[in-house]
UniProtKB/TrEMBL annotation:
Protein family per UniProt: Belongs to the EamA transporter family.
Main location: membrane
TM region positions: 12-33, 45-65, 77-96, 102-126, 135-153, 159-183, 195-217, 223-242, 254-273
InterPro entries assigned to the protein according to its UniProt record, in alphabetical order: AA-Vitamin_Transporters, EamA_dom, EmrE-like
UniProt domain EamA: residue ranges: 23-149, 162-296
Name the record gives this protein: Blr1151 protein
Native source organism of the sequence: Bradyrhizobium diazoefficiens (strain JCM 10833 / BCRC 13528 / IAM 13628 / NBRC 14792 / USDA 110)
Localization per Swiss-Prot or TrEMBL: Membrane
PANTHER family per UniProt: EAMA DOMAIN-CONTAINING PROTEIN (PTHR32322:SF2), INNER MEMBRANE TRANSPORTER (PTHR32322)
Gene Ontology CC: one annotated term: membrane
Length: 313
């Protein structure tokens, strides 16, 4: 009695996208806690200058060792350098200065509202559509952040000047995002990230050495661990995952994951730093998360489902 030959069943490939999304959210939200630890043992400008310089050297050095070709024109390299000043030097320079007198949870919450304000400016400056849904999301984001900030100020948990620095940090990353869309640099985003980091390190180093006290550095295991995470986990791995998500999911879907950062940031700040979290703060997260979701959720046009695509005609 002969048996029929078995038909090989193709194995399903493991989907790594959920893992990449989860790891990105964890790294990005924990960076605020690591930054808070870092600035308690080291002046923020010195910490950032060292972080950006080392990250830029590691990224570009790895590119050189692997033999990858340089894919940036002089124009694109200059654009990435300018973006490094906005997205790295100003954004984190102001943000880390604010972290000296605000909690890591609040700092993460304020900065995580950047997709909402980016969408508003993109509608004004780039001609991107602003629907009632997006406008409502923008309003919810502003209400949520304002409620939490007002509550923190009223109970004296965070200082007003620290919050001002954090809001200026938010404005810097929004500006950097708009500049990226306006200038549209081409070439490898990985190499561009190296240029951004190195440019930010070069700009911040003389400022840090001029205005910061080197003797104020307290070298502890906590500082070393936080610095290692910020370089490897923040500036290198998290940004690589971010670029991967942009490529796989698209900008709109990828940016929607930022609504997970406020609760994760507050959770990490509570577990690692022991920061107090009140129920009112958690309630304020709800309109922020809903607002960011409404702004970043892709609109599904009924007409696009019913009418044939113009490109096909």
């Amino acid at each position: 009695m002969s048996l029929a030959p078995s038909i090989p069943v193709p194995r399903s490939r493991f989907n790594t996208l959920p893992l990449a999304i989860g790891l990105f959210c964890l790294l990005w939200s924990y960076a605020f806690v690591a930054g808070k630890i870092g600035v308690t043992h080291c002046p923020p400008l010195i910490l950032l200058a060292a972080r950006f310089s080392l990250a830029g050297i590691l990224i570009l050095g790895a590119t050189l060792i692997r033999g990858d070709s340089w894919s940036l024109s002089w124009r694109d390299a200059a654009i990435f350098a300018v973006l490094g000043i906005a997205n790295n030097a100003l954004y984190l320079g102001l943000g880390y200065t604010g972290l000296q007198s605000v909690s890591a949870g609040l700092g993460g919450l304020i900065v995580s509202a950047n997709p909402v304000f980016t969408a508003a400016l993109a509608a004004l400056l780039l001609g991107e559509g602003m629907t009632w849904r997006k406008a409502g999301g923008l309003l919810l984001g502003v209400i949520g952040v304002t409620a939490i900030v007002w509550h923190r100020l009223s109970v004296g948990t965070d200082s007003w000047h620290g919050i001002v620095f954090t809001l200026a940090s938010l404005a810097s990353i929004v500006l950097g995002t708009i500049l990226f869309k306006l200038l549209a640099p081409k070439g490898s985003l990985w190499i561009g990230n190296g240029v951004q980091n190195l440019a930010a390190g070069i700009v911040l180093t003389p400022v840090a050495l001029t205005f910061a006290d080197v003797h104020a550095i307290d070298v502890t295991p906590s500082l070393i661990g936080a610095f290692a995470f910020l370089v490897l986990g923040g500036s290198i791995l998290a940004y690589w995952l971010w670029f991967h998500l942009l490529k796989v999911c698209g900008a709109t879907a990828a940016s929607a994951y930022h609504f997970l950062m406020p609760p994760l940031g507050m959770l990490f700040a509570f577990l690692v730093l022991g920061e107090h979290v009140e129920a009112r703060d958690l309630l304020g997260i709800i309109p922020v998360a809903l607002g960011i979701y409404l702004v970043t959720r892709p609109a599904k046009s009924l007409s696009s489902k019913l009418l044939p695509s113009k490109a096909a005609s």
